Every structure is written in C-alpha cells, then in structure tokens.
Amino acid sequence: MKKLLFAFVLISTTCFSQEFTYKKVISQGHTLKMKGKISVSDSIISIYTNDMPAIFKVEKTLEANFVKQYKALQVSADTEIRITLSNPEKPSKLNPRSLLMETKNSFSNDIVTLLYLLD
Q: What letters, b where the CB count within 10 A reaches 16 and e where it falls short, cover 15-50?
C-alpha cells in the first residue's frame, strides 16, 4: 500500500508540475548570471543551479489570475520562506515571468530576496 501511495505522489508531482529555465537571478539588488531550472507543483518546488537541487515542500497560500504564492513547510522555527510565481500568459518586459523567493529570519528580522527571471 505504501508503494502504491508513493508511486501516486511521484506521478502526480511530475505530471502536474510546470518546468521553467532561468539565466538571471536578482539578489539584494545585484544581477547574477546563472543558469538553471525550476520545477513547480502544488506540493513541491525544486530549484536547480549547476545541477544541485534545492527542494522545498510547500503549500499553496494564494492563487489569483497568473500569480501563485506558496509557503515552505518543514523549515527551521525561526525561518519563514515564501515563494511567489508570476506566470502571465503574455510575458513582457514590464510583466516578466518570474519566481520570487523571500526568506525571513524572525530572530533578526532580516529578509533575503531572490528573484529568478524565467525564460
């Protein structure tokens, strides 16, 4: 039974996920040229840089028009990670396809932002 459940979760995650690539990341006002890919589903977000994955279990907190917002689960007690996917039907320079990852440390109140400009 556990094998069947695991297979269902694996298939639904891969079948119902969106794949994106990126070449630029903006971090704290600095533009970095990096290549990678991002896979987004309703329960897992994977960010690959140099074939090294960062995998986040997430829950969807908001879905409106072309914007989806997620909250990462199972992170440390003093850290909160919010991920916002903007996927317009017709992306433009003023409205690009992007993924914003905000990490907040509640102890120091520091917020680190990473904006992935998606292809």
A: eebeebebebbeeeeeeeeeebbbbbbebbbbbbee
